[in-house]
Design goal:
The chain is an all-beta fold. The protein has a single domain, classed as TolB, C-terminal domain (Neuraminidase). It is about 0% helix and about 40% strand. The protein has a five-stranded mixed sheet with strand order 1-14-13-12-11, with no helix packed on it. Strands 4, 19, 20, 21 and 22 form a five-stranded mixed sheet that branches. A five-stranded antiparallel sheet has the order 5-26-25-24-23, with no helix packed on it. It binds calcium ion. Calcium ion binds next to loops.
Length: about 425
């Protein structure tokens, strides 16, 4: 492939495939326990920038683990932030836009699907282990748009996130031989006959490992491309602002550092993350990220520029002034969040080990309603389709669950107006 560097990672590449000591973690995945000592708080004392732009990011935990028992349809948990003695909000909140009716299959028979993005109205799906980008046709069948060159699928690595920019170019996050990278491709042809053009490197040399590769990419309302990375098995790197591991990155579509990034000359937007696999923005610009925790807490975070989210010094809500606490946390056994999407007044969170689609109201981010618990198995991604329906993606073919007939699948469900 043509590999024209259009941007450059600001830190050195970690050699791919380095394996230290491997142990299972709470998500049922391998984790490497490095002998490196976390470099303390690093810039942990830096207070997060005032939230001129609140970003809610949902970081996703590593996946896997045994299925949890199916639970009854919907269950609301958490303590509401608004009580009977509190005044009603001055401004009207966006409508919840919860599902109505039953989900139906969009397509079935996929192998480790990871992300869904849309080119105008045409759905594109990435497959982690095959490196394929697929186009879903109107009849529910898929055809191969192309295979991303040089994808090295191992563990949680492979072809991960997809995003399409306003010019119709496809961006992909994948694991290569020399680390994770973000590539940009032209899409040629028309719907039903799309083809993947040559790849250009947006950013390469992002730390990778068998697990904790992050992988979600998304364009923010500011037109910048954001990427969630993982700690790549070296927890202390999440506190090292000089490393691109354990971060949320912000870049131009060419991979350059925006002038207003919080760390001069760096793609780093926020740090202290373990493994971010979900990024989305509310209508008011608030950024959200999901984060896969280790032994104790998975997180939903509101992301602010320059924020330190604590890993590995703290996990979950610590009440430590050095760090930004999550707005909600879950035990990994009932969560392990990957993709997220904001639709109106609801943040949707796809959960792997928890096998549940969670609906978090934007007006009360500390609560959630569980949808489809145990019904479809592990859930990898969720997104709003151009036709206004909610799409979500299963992940039962990755060796960590027993696939059901037709797995893996993409489903859709209509939403309230
Ligand atoms: Ca945290």
């Amino acid at each position: 492939m043509r590999r024209t560097p259009v941007g450059r990672a600001v830190t050195a590449t970690r050699a791919y495939g380095r394996q230290d000591h491997v142990k299972p973690d709470q998500h049922g995945t391998e984790r490497r326990v490095s002998s490196r000592v976390a470099r303390g708080a690093g810039r942990a004392g830096r207070a997060p920038a005032v939230a001129a732009l609140l970003v809610l990011t949902l970081a996703a935990c590593a996946d896997a683990g045994p299925p949890t028992a199916p639970s009854a349809s919907a269950q609301t948990t958490g303590s509401g932030a608004t009580g009977p003695d509190e005044p009603a909000p001055a401004t009207s909140a966006p409508p919840a836009r919860l599902p109505v009716g039953e989900p139906v299959d969009v397509t079935t028979g996929l192998t480790t699907p990871w992300s869904v993005a849309f080119l105008d109205g045409t759905p594109l799906v990435s497959e982690r282990d095959t490196g394929r980008v697929l186009e879903v046709l109107d009849d529910g069948t898929v055809r191969e748009v192309g295979v991303v060159d040089g994808v090295v699928a191992r563990g949680e690595g492979g072809l991960l996130g997809l995003a399409v920019d306003e010019r119709g170019r496809l961006f992909s996050y994948s694991t290569g031989a020399d680390g994770n990278r973000i590539l940009r491709h032209d899409l040629t042809g028309s719907a039903g006959a799309l083809a993947l053009g040559a790849a250009e490197v947006v950013v390469e040399g992002l730390p990778s490992a068998g697990n904790h590769n992050g992988g979600r990419i998304a364009f923010g309302p500011d037109g910048m491309l954001y990427a969630g990375t993982g700690d790549a098995g070296v927890p202390g790197d999440a506190q090292d602002v000089g490393s691109l591991a354990g971060k949320i990155l912000r870049m131009t579509p060419d991979g350059e550092v925006p002038a207003d990034n919080p760390v001069a000359g760096s793609l780093v937007f926020s740090w202290g993350h373990r493994n971010v696999q979900g990024l989305a923005w509310a209508d008011d610009g608030t950024m959200l990220a999901s984060e896969l925790g280790q032994d104790t807490w998975d997180e939903l975070n509101v992301v602010v520029a320059g924020g330190n989210y604590g890993w590995p010094v703290v996990e979950g809500m610590a009440g430590d002034a050095r760090f930004v606490d999550p707005v909600q946390q879950w035990p990994p056994s009932s969560a392990s969040p990957s993709g997220i999407a904001v639709v109106g007044g609801t943040v949707y969170v796809a959960n792997l080990r928890g096998q549940v689609l969670r609906a978090v109201p934007t007006v009360d981010l500390g609560t959630a309603t569980d949808l489809y618990a145990g019904r479809y198995g592990r859930l990898r991604d969720v997104t709003l389709a151009p036709d206004g329906t909610l799409w979500f993606v299963t992940q039962n073919t990755d060796g960590r669950a027993a696939p059901k007939a037709g797995d893996d699948r993409v489903l859709r469900v209509p939403l309230e107006p």
